[in-house]
Amino acid sequence: MFNPKTIRQDFPILSREVNGKPLVYLDNAATSQKPRQVIQTLTESYEMYNANVHRGVHTLSMEATDRYEAARQKVADLIHAPSTECVIFVRNTTEAINLVAGTWAASNVGPGDEIVLTEMEHHSNLVPWQKVAQEQSATLRFIPVTDDGTLDLSSLDTLINQHTKLVSIVHVSNMLGTLNPVNEIIRKAHHAGAHVMIDAAQSVPHTAVDVMEMDCDFLAFSGHKMLAPPGIGVLYVKPSVLEQMEPFMRGGEMVQEVWYDHATWSDLPNRFEAGTPNFTDAVALGAAIDYLNDLGMDEVRQHERDITAYALDAFGQLEEVEIVGPKDPDLRGGLLTFTASDIHPHDLGTFLDMDGIAIRTGHHCVMPMHRKLGLSATARASFYVYNSNDEIDILVESLKRALAYFGHAAQRT
Amino acid sequence: MQPNELDDLYREVILDHYRTRRNSQRLPDAQVEAHGNNPFCGDEVFLQLRLNRDGTIQEIGNQGQGCSISQASSSLMSDALKGRTLEEAGALRELFRRMLAGEQLSDAETEMLGELEALQGVRQFPVRIKCALLAWSVLEDGVKEYRGL
Asked: Where are the domains of chain B?
């Protein structure tokens, strides 16, 4: 039985107080908290298994290598990758996208080609493609977003055409919360001969993802949003695509043999992991995956769907609160972006913080979408395995008092 | 009841200036004109100064959008600057900055700040200090440009 109250006990930070109130952590889309199991794995790595990987013949190095590669296997299993060869460890989603932009796109996108994104992309899945487009004389095209925060697929057949080289889209929007129909888009893109990259930063931590079934060419996510430390992320690349790709960075670890004037590359995936990798945090990511698997990814999704439905309902009772994005919990991930009357999100964020509630305020690295919606900033509450309906009640109660507090000011003038 | 820090941050005078901005009229023929924003929060301030022959500030216009602290600070600044020279405005900006940095001010200095003192509660909220300083940075940019620096 999935019980956030029991799960909470595994997260030491959740028992601390903020401004004299119990912490209500609702900023999970920015980063998640870490369970004791992950923290212990980190400690254990440093106290028992610390040595550089893929190098020494000594025991510690071999043990560290085994742990690092076991973590890679856990990642492969989690996303149903066909093998560990197509799982590349990177720092985060941003680095993964830059890797694809700097290697695959550098040799596959040329003048007149088109890259299709959506209007709801995080800056991480927009700015790297702006560079590719500028330097390689390609054009960026955008799948529009409708007023209800979903993708308008009516023009997809013309947007994705014979000029399209890549379609790179977000799976779950970190701002609108929208769960995009990626399978349908991937099918159409492949039909047109284009490759597809999925920004899965807000989906892999929260729901079961199967890259084989999805049939994407690239998929990226970050460890720190799924109970692991920051500094470790994953890029999955379809094997047939990966074999054709040039290395991203060059140096140690990624070479087979080196002469003064040239070098040959080592096997996959090490070819894409130049320099000492972040093996310690990769092992911690493995522990985080174990933790999530024990809960069950389908159960995690169900829990977040339910808490989002509860929050949508509670927010719906507040006349002054406007939800941004789809209102149907089945069409969205576990996060709610909103505005509260004309209270500026930063004033609201400060007010809620005094009640121990952590939410995100600002543009959430999605400036163009905010601009399109005529918003300069919004507030966002995002949920994870340890959040409960009780915390939604605390949030709503504090919101009501914020509305009264700032609304009262309006009456004074 | 909210903790005292909150009421100290959002003093009545601040919420009042936020809701009813002073000197919000845009001045078409201003000698000093500047605009600045804080992309991190989306706070934005536009500023215009019309000067007298003796160099004192005759009229001031300020507009913008953003959080209560950034906009109230802009409104409060516009009231505080009237009749002052650009040098005096610069000195006031420095005093205001020192107050937000948590420095101990003399009674005379506090008196000089006048209503601007209402923003001192921002000190307790380090991430909001830049909101309070935005209008003053815009002023500095405008004056620099006016002097051809």
From this structure: 4-146
Domain chopping of chain A, boundaries: 4-30+296-406, 38-293
Q: Does domain B4-146 have CATH number 3.90.1010.10?
A: yes
Distances (CA, A) of B6 to A88, B101, B134: 47, 18, 21
Burial class (CB in 10 A: 0-12, 13-18, 19+), A244: exposed
- Kindly report the CATH class assigned to A4-30+296-406: alpha beta
Report d(CA A367, CA A375) in Å as an integer: 9
Does residue A188 have a pLDDT over 60?
A: yes
What value does the mean pLDDT of chain A take? 96
On chain A, the residues whose CB falls within 8 A of the CB of B41 are: 346, 362, 377
Nearest-neighbour CA in chain B from A412: distance (Å) = 8
Q: Minimal Cα–Cα distance from B73 to chain A, Å?
A: 14
pLDDT in tens, B127-149: 899 999 999 999 999 999 999 87
- Work out the pLDDT band at B3, boundaries 50, 70, 90: low
| CB contact (8 A) between residue A412 and residue B19 | yes
Instruction: For chain A, say whether B128 makes contact (Cβ under 8 Å).
Output: yes
B46 in A contact zone (CB under 8 Å) = no
Report whether pLDDT(A413) > 60: no
Catalytically active residues of A, by annotation: 365
Q: Which tens digit of pLDDT belongs to each residue from A57-103? A: 899 999 999 999 999 999 999 999 999 999 999 999 999 999 999 99
Residue A346 pLDDT level (bands cut at 50, 70, 90):
very high
| A47-52 average pLDDT score | 97
CATH for the stretch A38-293 = 3.40.640.10
Interchain pair A362, B42: CB under 8 A: yes
Nearest to B13 by CA among B122, B111, B126: B122
Residue A339: beta bridge partners?
A: A322
Distance from the Cα of A344 to chain B's closest Cα (Å) equals: 5
CA distance B37 to A152: 33
Question: What pTM was computed for the model?
Answer: 0.93
Contact A240, A217 (CB under 8 A): no
